[in-house]
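Render Metallo-beta-lactamase domain-containing protein in 3D.
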Amino acid sequence: MKYAQIPLGPLQTNCYLLAEEGGSCLIIDPGGEDGKLNQYINEYKLKPIAVILTHAHFDHIGAVDAVRNKYDIPVYIHEKEASWLLDPALNGSQRFQYGEPIRLKPADGIIAGESAMQLGAFSFQVLETPGHSPGSISIFLKDAGIVVAGDALFSGSIGRTDLPGGNHEQLIKSIHDKLMVLPEETIVLPGHGPATTVGNEMDSNPFLNGF
C-alpha cells in the first residue's frame, strides 16, 4: 500500500490518500481545496472508493460533499459525530469563520463502536480514540503498518481538548490504551504536521511522559 499526505484547507489539514495496487484508494479527511485533491487523484490515476472521517471538525470536512459528488462514493463517520456534518455550530465552522458555515449531507455509513472494516481491497481496524472530540477515531491498517490518528496524536504533541466535547484525560487514555499499544514501528499519520512512529512518540513526546 502507498499513501500520500496532502495538506488542504484553511488550516492545512492533512488529507490522506491510501492506495492499493491497481489504483483504488480511500480518501481520509478531505478538509478543503477539492480541486487540488482532484488534480492529485487524476495525476496518479487513482480510483476513490470511499471517504472516511477521523472526526467532524470543520477543517477535516470542508471538501466532503464535493468529493462525494464527483466520485459518487460513500462517506463514513463515527455515530457520535454524524450530526456534526449538518450543523455548523457543532463542526466549528460557525465559530471559527474561515469561510461559509459548513452544512453537509448526512453520512452514508455510520461507524458504531470499534470493529474491523472491509472496503474494497482495504482491511482495517477502527479504533475509538476520543478526547479531541467525542467521536474521534483512528484507522489502523495492520498489514501496512500505518495508523491514521486524526487529531489525537501528533509528532511531539497531542490534540487540543478545549473545544466542545474535548476532554484531556480521555485523550491521554485513548492514546495510551489504543495507540501506544501498537507496534513501535507503526507509522502514525496525524491530522496536522509530519508523520511519526509509535516508538518515536513513546520516547520523546513530552505529553506522554511515563509511557
